[in-house]
TRAP dicarboxylate transporter, DctM subunit (Halanaerobium praevalens), 426 residues
Amino acid sequence: MAFVPVIIAFILYFTGIPIAFALIAAALSYFSFINVGMPPDLILQRFVSSSASFPMLAIPFFIMAGSIMNYSGISASLMKMADVLTGHLTGGLAQVNIVLSLLMGGISGSANADAAMQCKILVPEMEKRGYSRAFSTAVTAASSSVAPVIPPGIDLIIYALIAQVSVGKMFLAGYAPAIIMGLTLMVTVSIIAKKRNYAPSRAKRASLKEIFTQARKSIWALFLPFGIILGLRAGMFTPTEGGAIAVLFCTLVGIFVYKELELKHLPLILKDTIYSTSTVMFIIIAASIFGYYMTWEMIPQALSAALLSATNSKILMLLMVNLLLLILGMFLEGGAALIILAPLLVPVVTGLGVDPVHFGAIAIVNIMIGGITPPFGSMMFTSCSITGVEISDFVKEVYPFILALIVALLVVTYVPGIVMFLPNLF
């Protein structure tokens, strides 16, 4: 009977009910019909208390910063910088797509936001240059998986809160995995582009003068993620205050530097922020209620015991955890999967000597791969709905990128020194 709510949650989710409602319904069914000794007042208090966290205030601030960036000219400036750096490579616009995700991922903080924006900006342009729409959509979805790994991605903050590790350390641990993911995607694009004769977006490599000129124009946009990291590590502000500073910085740059942000954009920015924040927070609350049920039934302890009894090898354990996360990532939305699974798995891997910061990077990369994988990958649905590509055509084009990201995942998993270099350095 203890596992009935889990079955209910999956059944509801597979019938099309949003994950937040599925989790709440499953948890309430447990406390209403199975564990009837729990007073209803305590459950209602849990709804409120699960969102009463000061660090969670960082979420709406960073979401708003990403929205302002889209209207202020910062995104366009980063795209020009990406084109100068990689436009001359084979498959030029596809390479620009990936580099743009690396440049702006830390600011948007959301894989779906990155996928939506790039689908609107780059996919039509890629079609004009001779790329197929399905390939363009697959590249966009795959590159968007890098966005939440770059600081200050929302998933990094959420994991830090769940695992009770430093947000600053999680931010620093995100750079290396994101760069590895970007490089493997770029190699894959290059191989496919050579076979299909996809032309570069620039006739020749940009000169040092061109790169320097564009870097000078884009310096304000490029400074944002690094400024936040340095401010956090220097103790100048908390993650929440850093989010507020990011909003102020993007606003000032949009008004006085790029001069594209106008008063008419304010309602659109507020709408984007409120909608995205409400979605994220509601999932967090639902997952907290569901986690309360699992804690009550000691399911995390049971799972930990089962995994530890299967093997005491760190290598095999990480392989098993990776397989579990990859499979569940195909069915669960990224944020929800992280919130549900992190409390279960962190005690298991730390018991074998894995640093929780390192495991956070592994878990987030895993979940991002699941976001572009059928049957329920959220970035897959976001990208295909915007570009009008059939899911079957998308799947044919995206599988090489999934394999490339799995290679990156194995490097992140089994070479911890790469991930932990910056956190240990600071």
Remarks:
- The chain has two domains: 1-52, 53-280+288-425.
- The mean pLDDT is 81.
- Residues 53-280+288-425 form one domain.
- The CA atoms of residues 156 and 170 lie 6 Å apart.
